[in-house]
Amino acid sequence: TKSSDSLPWLFYKDGVRELTFARGFDTEELAKLLDILQRVRKASPDEDDLLTLLWQGDFAYLRYRYVDMSVDPTTPLGEGGERLADSQIDTRKLAEEAVAEGEEGEESSTSSGVVNMADFDATLYFLDEKEIEYIQSEVRREYEVDLRQNVIALLFDIFEQQADPTIRDEVAAILDSFMLHMLSASQFHNVAYFIRESAVASQRAIDIVPGQRDRLAQIPARLSAPEALTQLLQSMDEAQSLPSQAELLELFEQLRGSALATVFDWLGRLQNPKLRPLLEQAASRLAAQSTADLVKLVSSPTRNIALEAIRRSGGLRTPAAVAPIAKVLESGDAELRAAAVDALAEIGTTTALQALERGVDDEEREVRIAAIRALLAKGHRAVLPRLDAIVKGRAIREADLSEKMAAFEAYGSLCGNGGVAALDQMLNGKSLFGRREDAELRACAAVALGRIGTPDAQAALRQAANEKDVVVRNAVARALRGPAT
Questions:
Q1: Residue 485 banded pLDDT, cuts 50, 70, 90
Q2: Of the ranges 4-13, 100-109, 455-464, the best mean pLDDT one
Q3: What's the pLDDT band for 421 if we cut at 50, 70, 90?
Q4: Residues 11-28: pLDDT tens digits?
Q5: What is the predicted pLDDT for the residue at 226?
Q6: Is the pTM of this model over 0.90?
Q7: Three-state helix/strand/coil letters over the chain
């Protein structure tokens, strides 16, 4: 019968031709089959058919055979010419048959529905070596691309285009946290890019309110603040590996002059020797960009900061720093005064050399010698009255040989023929009681006469050529040969 209530017809119309029940079906899966049959009887045309439900049931103790004339004709046939269901196809056996036929060199005819993977072996080598290398290099390049800058650019684009203050505040908060993340990861190149883009976005954003513009504009200032920069430098000082010099310099180029004090202070207490050259160069670049802040730091109450500021001012030859450096030369400690002498000499302007003259009378020997030699190197004749007083004074007689030589060499180089008489008296003259000056002073006078080099000076030297004292005699001989020897 073909009644809709007929169980055979229910199986037949959906292509099921045979059912096989294994031991255990009645206890394990009979209820599941009856439930499926009940659903099929009540199902609408749009719902799943019996074959689909049997497949979904995933029976372990039930086997079925069905015929489906709509499937691909390559589906294997059963013994009666009917097409086998998937559950009846032994794919392993078919694959073994295909391999056996391939080894015999025959084309597969009985297993045309099975794909032979050997047919695709050639596709492994369809690219030549250059193409493979190119693909590999592009894959590596893609994985090595730092996406942080893309994220930064995207966030700033949103900030510029979205005029809603709420959105901009949210983006600004994300940017702040993102900058902290990059700093902690030592991504200084990206931080520098971030700061540059923040300055651009603060000027280019549409309908931006003053508070939002200030928030972006103050990013470099916040990073340059002592608290933030101190934490950054401390983390680098304690780190095992350091960023590249290029990244560090790129970051410091974005800082403000307020960062100079912190950088100078840390230069005096670094523990990581690898960080010092990086920070030294970064400090020089930052000082060159912020000379006004550099000049202010010369008068810093913190000694390390003042010392670095004096040295950097001299290295940059900053005329604006002459006045504060001159004050340091008057009242600073010995090391600061020595640094002030070097800085004024490097600046070398007339005002700087005039301030340097005070160093000739400094209470510290090293400062006096440095000042005299610096003025001599600059040929500053205005210091001659001070040198004249030193050479003819009593204090020079108590000085050590280095200071005597420095004073007399400078005096002889600057005084000209007008100083011959005084030097001749020191070299050849005698006191009222027939006593001469000590040998060191006479030797220094001979050196000064040799620096003068005029005929009168040469005559005074020849007069002492046969001096019995070996120190004086050798000094005279060298002076007669000229200052070049």
A1: very low
A2: 455-464
A3: very high
A4: 888 788 888 888 888 888
A5: 86
A6: no
A7: CCCCCCHHHHHHHCCEEEEEECCCHHHHCHHHHHHHHHHHHHCCCCCCCHHHHHHHHCCCCEEEEECCCCCCCCCCECCCCCECCHHHCCHHHHHHHHHHHHHCCCCCCCCCCCCCHHHHHHHHHCCCHHHHHHHHHHHHHHHHCCCHHHHHHHHHHHHHHCCCHHHHHHHHHHHHHHHHHHHHCCCHHHHHHHHHHHHHHHHHCCCCCHHHHHHHHCHHHHHHCHHHHHHHHHHHHHCCCCCCHHHHHHHHCCCCCCHHHHHHHHHCCCCCCCHHHHHHHHHHHHHHHCHHHHHHHCCCCCHHHHHHHHHHHHHHCCHHHHHHHHHHHHHCCHHHHHHHHHHHHHHCCHHHHHHHHHHHHCCCHHHHHHHHHHHHHHCCHHHHHHHHHHHHCCHHHHCCHHHHHHHHHHHHHHHHHHHHHHHHHHHHCCCCCCCCCCHHHHHHHHHHHHHHCCHHHHHHHHHCCCCCCHHHHHHHHHHHHCCCC
Question: Which residue do the tokens 């590996």 mark?
Answer: 241
